[in-house]
Amino acid sequence: MRVIPRLLALCCAVVSAHSMAVPLSDLYRVREPVASQQPAEREEALRKAFDTLVLRLTGDSSSDQKAVAPLRNDPQQLVSRYAYEGDAVIVSFDPVTTERALRSAGIPLWGAERPSILTWWLGESANGSQLVGDAQEGSADLRAAAQHRGLPLRLPLADLSEQLVATPDTITARDPQALRDVSERYDTDGLLAVMAKQSGETWQANWRLWLGDKQTQGKVSGDTRAALADEVMLAVSTFLAPQYRVEPGDSSDITLEVLGADVGRFAELDRLLEPFGARLQRVDSDRLVYRLNASPEQLRAQLALARLQEVTLDEFDPPLDTAGTDTALDPVDSGEVSAGGAEAPPIEAQIPPEAPGVSTSEPSQPADQGTLLRYRW
């Protein structure tokens, strides 16, 4: 029996304490309302579900419609199953088939690993203001909207201390420090502050988003609170997607070194690098060397989800000789590993010499290593 699949199972079972990014398990599951279960109604719902999925995966409502037209005309070729639930049809698209078809059409895609967003949603009406907490009225609308737009949503507990802080002044402030202070307990990637007001028969919201050193804001409206929540999440998704989606053709060869890996961190990094088809080349104690093809800026944004810090060559002590990491390896005989694949070894200390997979010896001196990026936890 081969050692690596068993080690990988152990690796994936370990939950990293450092992980903030959230892999969305229901990314390819779409809920669309239907008026009936008639075939014509179902086919139209499948097309709408496909449109929702494409927007969820790209964050771009102007994606090349001509390129995806054949898929939209017959979305059932991508559907693994569908089922009716009340007045809606739940459509589950096959992830592998769908991703392959969209990439073949030249569509840039945003993977399942996405930044977690803590949302401070303050609703204001004639009855006063109310912070939407994790188990309070209105939370279901926010969760449904986040799922519909492909965002990992977290809500505060909305206990007394948080309600005292989440006032209209702090929610609408340009400086989020007051919210940051009460948000530390949740340890999420981004912070979203929403001030929602009901005016007659409509709802309006001003929102601000902070993610790392980036921020944006906007104003949306909707006929209902649920519709308003959907508009907010769509705006957030549209802002985030370009930072993470992988553009066809906009990439270069990259050698990535990561220092400070352990079992849980390896599993997290393996998921993060999956959209780039990364190949694990070497393991040296807690140091990993990958080869991949990606845009450096997109890769930097993806690695930021795991709170990895980019470092210079001098900070690696001693620096790892990466010459030769592009040596051709046969995936069967030598065990070349792709991120997300079933042959990836975990990192415990040293890979045992008898374990098939990744070479820990000094490689020969061949090909260009491409752009070199170095990171540490």
Give an account of the 3D structure.
The protein is of the alpha+beta class and 377 residues long. The chain folds into three domains: 3-21 and 248-376, no CATH class; 28-104, no CATH class; 113-243, Double Stranded RNA Binding Domain (2-Layer Sandwich), CATH 3.30.160. It is 31% helix and 26% strand. The strands form four sheets. Strands 6, 7, 8, 9, 10 and 11 form a six-stranded mixed beta sheet that branches. Helix 5 runs parallel beside helix 9. The longest helix has 20 residues, at 39-58. It is globular, with a radius of gyration of 23 Å. Residues 1-19, 322-338 and 340-367 have low confidence and may be disordered.
List keywords for this structure.
377 residues, alpha+beta, Double Stranded RNA Binding Domain, 3 domains, six-stranded mixed sheet, 31% helix, DUF2066 domain-containing protein, DUF2066, signal
Number of domains: 3
Global mean pLDDT: 82
Beta content comes to 25-35%
Query: What is the gyration radius calculated from CA atoms?
Result: 23 Å
Number of DSSP E strands: 17
The succession of helices and strands, N to C, reads: HEEHHEEHEEEHEHHHEEEHEHEEHEEE
Q: In which range does the helix fraction lie?
A: 25-40%
Terminal residue distance: 33 Å
Low-confidence stretches: 1-19, 322-338, 340-367
User: What structural class do the secondary elements suggest?
Assistant: alpha+beta
Q: How many helices? A: 11
Largest sheet: 6 strands, mixed
- Can you tell me the overall shape? globular
Biased composition (Low complexity): 342-352
Organism: Stutzerimonas xanthomarina
Region (Disordered): 316-377
Protein name: DUF2066 domain-containing protein
